[in-house]
């Protein structure tokens, strides 16, 4: 493989993961300082980012796929389910967890999705539980305990509602990952994800239209944060991640994707100045450790499916 192509791939996946992590913290800033509504932010970022991804597909890749995906009834139905139950659920639960808690905990709880996928595959008898699976599950349980309690059983270090939303985000991400597989085998990822974002954004717009917001009190800082979340934290982050797969293996991109929770933690602690206890750092290390361990063993797990 060309070294320059590999360097480009590394740059893309690292940048994408960091942008994802930072965007969660920037979203928390929007909720705290500018009282941006969760429904409004999710609907707006999905609609704009989805439109941008489809635009990229139109000008750079196979534009014929943009509408051919809707010609098959089964595929069209799957895409609607993926957009509403997959994409919208992942985005909304993640943002709701951030608003009620913080970006670091929300991101780490969402990263438990691989554990949920393992449990689902075991229950469906698609894989057999291995020693590595036991290790990752134990790391997940220990990590969550320290992360959410900071070592004290008497009280939780983050609001219960934030934990609920975070766990739901992990479940939604697990569904999102598994349900997308058949669609991605037939169509480009930008087509599937772009349309899913449009569908999810439109669905939420029926409840909270994007044009219904108090724009009068917004400052230049508000708009800059919004641009970052929508353009860099959603559209560019995903695009970079997908593009990196051209020169890197899925194993490498997943491994480097663990920079996302790290970026969320560092920006939450050092930029938003939110407290993060000693045991929470231990819990963080456990969660990141399990992500790395699962990524390193991804091939062997896939072979058992």
Considering the chains and any ligands shown, give keywords for the structure.
single chain, 305 residues, mainly alpha, globular, disordered C terminus
What does this structure look like?
The chain is about 80% helix and about 0% strand. It has about 300 residues and is an all-alpha fold. The longest helix is centred in the first third of the chain and has 31 residues, at about 5-35. α1 runs parallel beside α12, α2 (about 40-60) crosses α4 (about 75-100) and α4 packs antiparallel against α5 (about 105-110). The radius of gyration is 19 Å and the shape is globular. The model is unreliable at about 300-305 (pLDDT under 50). The chain has helices at about 5-35, 40-60, 65-70, 75-100, 105-110, 115-125, 130-150, 160-185, 190-205, 220-245, 250-255, 260-270, 280-295, 300-305.
Fold blueprint:
Layout: H1 3-33, H2 38-60, H3 65-68, H4 73-100, H5 103-110, H6 113-123, H7 131-149, H8 160-186, H9 189-205, H10 220-244, H11 250-256, H12 259-270, H13 278-296, H14 298-304
Brief characterization of the structure:
This protein is mainly alpha-helical and 305 residues long. The protein contains 14 helices and no strands. The radius of gyration is 19 Å and the shape is globular.
Number of strands: 0
> Quick one: biggest sheet?
none
Number of helices: 14
- Give the N-to-C terminal Cα separation: 29 Å
Globally, the shape reads: globular
Work out the strand percent: under 5%
Mean pLDDT: 86
Provide the low-confidence segments as ranges. Answer: 299-305
Summarize the helix and strand pattern as letters. Answer: HHHHHHHHHHHHHH
Structural class: mainly alpha
Helix content: over 70%
Radius of gyration: 19 Å
């Amino acid at each position: 493989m060309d070294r320059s192509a590999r360097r480009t791939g590394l740059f893309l996946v690292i940048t994408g993961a960091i942008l994802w992590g930072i965007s969660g913290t920037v979203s928390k800033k929007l909720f705290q300082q500018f009282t941006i509504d969760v429904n409004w932010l999710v609907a707006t970022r999905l609609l704009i980012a989805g439109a941008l991804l489809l635009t990229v597909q139109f000008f750079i890749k196979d534009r014929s796929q943009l509408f051919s995906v809707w010609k098959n009834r089964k595929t069209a139905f799957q895409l609607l389910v993926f957009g509403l139950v997959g994409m919208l659920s992942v985005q909304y639960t993640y943002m709701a967890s951030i608003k009620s808690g913080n970006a670091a905990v929300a991101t780490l709880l969402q990263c438990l999705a691989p554990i949920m996928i393992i449990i689902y595959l075991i229950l469906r008898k698609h894989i057999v539980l291995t020693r590595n699976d036991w290790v990752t599950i134990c790391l997940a349980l220990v990590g969550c305990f320290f992360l959410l309690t900071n070592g004290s059983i008497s009280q939780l270090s983050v609001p219960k509602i934030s934990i609920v939303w975070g766990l739901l985000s992990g479940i939604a991400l697990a569904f999102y990952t598994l349900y997308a597989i058949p669609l991605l085998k037939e169509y480009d990822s930008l087509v599937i994800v772009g349309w899913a974002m449009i569908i999810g954004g439109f669905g939420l717009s029926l409840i909270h239209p994007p044009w219904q917001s108090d724009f009068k009190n917004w400052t230049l800082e508000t708009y800059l944060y919004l641009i970052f979340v929508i353009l860099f934290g959603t559209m560019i982050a995903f695009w970079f991640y997908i593009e990196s797969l051209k020169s890197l293996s899925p194993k490498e991109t997943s491994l480097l994707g663990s920079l996302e929770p790290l970026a969320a933690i560092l920006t939450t602690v050092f930029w938003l100045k939110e407290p993060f206890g000693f045991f929470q750092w231990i819990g963080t290390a456990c969660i990141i450790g399990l992500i790395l361990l699962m990524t390193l063993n991804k091939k062997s797990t896939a072979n058992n499916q």
